Every structure is written in structure tokens, then in C-alpha cells.
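Encode chain A's predicted structure.
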Amino acid sequence: MNGILCMNKPEEFTSFDVIGKLRGILRIRKLGHTGTLDPMATGVLPVLVGTAAKACDIMPCQDKTYRAGVRFGLSSDTLDIWGNEFCEYPSMHVTKSAVLDVIPSFTGEIEQLPPMYSAVSVGGKRLYELARKGVETERPVRNVQVYSIELEQFDEERQEAVLCVKCGKGTYIRTLIDDIGRVLGGGAVMTSLCRTMASGFDISECYTFDEVKSAVETGTLEKLLIPTERLFEDYPKLYLNEVQTRMYRNGVKLNLGRIYNIIPNRCEYTVYSFDRTFIGTAKADFENCELRCGKNFEER
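Encoded structure for chain A:
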């Protein structure tokens, strides 16, 4: 039972809560996830099942897409509507054209200050642990990548909007919204958050706990699993012959000159056996003319 099980995370569940509940449903201990979601957020949480859990630290695609609700004229200590301390800006009035004028300046590589209510570690302490004690500390500014921001909905009377954000790893949507609010002359808080894509997996591929439980009861769980090789679909594929397959599975480095489809200056590959079975990842060492073993995802 190996592969990716895409979950549609419900509200009020942490990513670890999802893993814990799935362990009870699947009766499998070997589970991992590809990126945390705040408890109030919903949407795509790819769960790595069985040998696929080995990919947690080598995920080649870390891009994500979010659909976020926004309310202008308000700020909070957590940068979202679930905060405890709020500040209102009664004279602030945002127009659609103003939002459209501002959001291009928040695309590309931008700097972000991680929110105090986050899992970022500073000095061995999680920021949210310090925040809950009323302690605010200096935080390192991060460079993050925001590929695009689209204004999906806007209600001028209610001063509310919906933004669709495509971004790279480590981007805080709450911080992005707060920064946009400040530039517009006041504040803004996140009112909802749904991750619609993560690591190449779309929300249309996700399942609920009830659907997973039903699949377990009917013995059809494997139909819900996406093959592990999908994680590395952008890597070039190498197909070994029978002798090379046996050598590679035993950890022997292969001669690059004897392997078909090696691309100059391309180091990362996926490797398949002579019978087209996915084995794992590999790295081309051009200096020594060797193909080195990466991660092996076969069950042994």
C-alpha cells in the first residue's frame, strides 16, 4: 500500500491531526505529508503512504495555489479573522481599482516577515509558543516567490475580496494580505483559506475522511492512491536493461555512457527496471561518469 493519498483537509484539523486520523482508518503507521496547513485552512494535503513517505525531504515541486478571503479595514494579532486583538480603520475605503493597482507589486520575489503566530522556529522556540505568552521577538525576513495574484471577487460595499494566489514554498498568505492592507492605507485580515493545489496535486484529486473510510471498508483504497512516481513527473526517465536493473538494485553505480536518455547537464532522473517498474530517483555524476542511486521507493 504505497503512493499519494490526496486529502481535502477540513477546518479545525492540523496537518498532524489528519495523519493521526488516517493512521486509525488505514491501520498504517508509515505516513507523511508534504506541507502543513493552518487549522482554519482547508484544501489539498497530499499524504505520502508507505514507501512514498521517503519523499518528504526531496519533493521537487513545492508550489502551491490558495483561494483566500479578505476583509479590508481590520487587522489582528494573528493577521486573520480568528485573532484575539483587533484594530479597526473606519476611514479606510478600498476600491477595486486600488486593489488591482497594488497587487502587481506583491508578485515575483518579495520579502516577508513571518507572523508571530506561525510554526517558524527562532532560538529553538516556535513563534506561536512565544506569541501565546505575549512575547514578541525579532524574526528573520524571508525571500519568497509569488507567481501570481488574481482578484477573483470584490465587494466594495462590504469591503471584502477573494484572492487567488500561486506561490512558492514558505509563503504566508496571511502576511501577504496584511501587507496589502497596509499599502492600501490601513489593514486587512484573512477570513478564509483554501489550498486548491499543492505539489502538483489539484483539489479535484482529493478525498474526505468518509470517502477514505468507505474505500477501506470496500477494499478499494488502492484505487484512491496516486503512484509515487507522479511526484517526480518532471524528471527525465531512465529505463535499465535486466543486468543494469540487478546491479542498480544492489547499489552499484552505473556507467553513464551505457545508459540511454542521459541529458547533458541534467542531474536528476527517475529510474525504471527492465520490466518498466518504477524503482526511484537517481543522480548523474558527470565528473565521474556514474549514475548514483537516489531514493529507492520499491517495497522490500
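The mean pLDDT is 91.
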